[in-house]
Amino acid sequence: MIVAEAKSLGKIKEMLASHKRVLVSGCNTCMAVCFAGGEKEAAVLAASLRMAFKIDGVDIEIKEMSVQRQCEKEFTEPLKGGAADFDAVLSLGCGAGVNALADMLTDTIVYPGVDTKFIGITESEGVWASRCSACGECILDQTAGICPINRCAKNILHGPCGGSQGGSCEISRDIPCVWQLIIDRMKRLGIMDKLGGIRPLKDWSAGLNPSKVTKDERDK
Amino acid sequence: MMEKSNLEKVLSLGEFAVTAELGPPKGADGQKVKEKARLLKDVADAVNITDCQTAIVRMSSIASAKLIMDEGLEPIVQMTTRDRNRIALQSDLLGAAALGINNILCLTGDHPKFGNHPEAKPVFDLDSIQLSLMLKRMRDDKLFLNGEELHGAPNFFIGAVANPFADPFDYRAVRLAKKIEAGADFIQTQIIYNVEKFFDWMAQVREMGLDKKVHILAGVAPVKSAGMAKYMKKNVPGMDVPDWVIERMEAAGKEGAKEEGIKICVEIIEKVKNIDGVHGVHIMAIEWEDAVGPIAEAAGLLPRPKY
User: What pTM did the predictor assign?
Assistant: First the structure.
């Protein structure tokens, strides 16, 4: 899933201060799972904003309307009519959600309410971690299913580097050395032969943006 | 074909090599590079020029290399993949070769997080092993990475680094083998204080026959103070500083610290010099360049041969 962090109330207030009627729109899939901008968070944020602006003596009407997925037209259609009465929309979707709303709402300003961080997993309760860099050409077959492109700070394809110590990455003792994890797993699976040899340079163009995937071309 | 570098000649003739290190200044004053160069003249066969070490912006390693060449020293240009993609790397390498620079040390480089511009976008288009491979292709096959022909091929003497003290220990020699396969002609190691562990690593290296395929230069560095030794032990990833180093530096007190640091360094050189497969030492006296001469002298490594 996509993982994000809510922007601070102060930053959001700055964005919205010049508007009169604002619609806060949560996105109830990834953003709900990482508690950054689902329906519940949208309701809490809208209430907080109403209170904060009231204290400041600023007259802004704030309503909320969340959808299941801002990145798909099928779900955002109700927002088209809903946003008509508002002069700004605060999207709590990931960056893709904000873009999708901006594409659809041609005459309404759309603001981001979250900072999109990464494609990742829930590591433990309230902790999410990145796992995929969407590099466009998966090499997990060569690395025992553990990604050095995403999890090695230096994208090294022949690790561990000289900074790996006691299983930790040189950039932080709290970050595991992904190449140590890869080697441990390869040993366990009896596939250490996959570690050998020199890997070709990565074709980064496979993951460059702007980018599009087309089903008909993909199926060819 | 351009002439071989002095370092290549020293090593290929079986002489015990000495290399040193020079960090370029944080400014545009070329005189500072030349001043440091003068301190290292005639005490080393070649001098590493660091490439924005610890990701702190400094004068470019290639420009600094040219400045020390003007002073009659031979540079080893350190080149990291942190700040340049394959286009910029190949371009800079051709420029270096045109200036007569043959010795290139291939590094991935310290992460920008450690430096003075931690907000920078790290490049890491390729890693150090792939960088060696690229140099080898340019030199031996006379080709760019994309297969296009090079007009005027460089004559690189390809260097790489190895850290015997990083984990997992049993993988370190295997990784060295990859660096050799990728084209490394010489290796400079991480700073050695734990001689026993270095000895064990060299045993693995010899067992795999790697000492016959590459010139290994043992990395050493004088400690300036007990505080510096403690800092390295605690804070520098991939460094192994045994307690005896700290204890001896503490016992030497503030007055005797520098002298003791040099003494320890000389003792370590004397130990590693006799290890089978070690073909030289790399003396890293960072911001203490005038220590290299006395260390080399005391270790019986002077005068340096001239070719």
Answer: 0.95
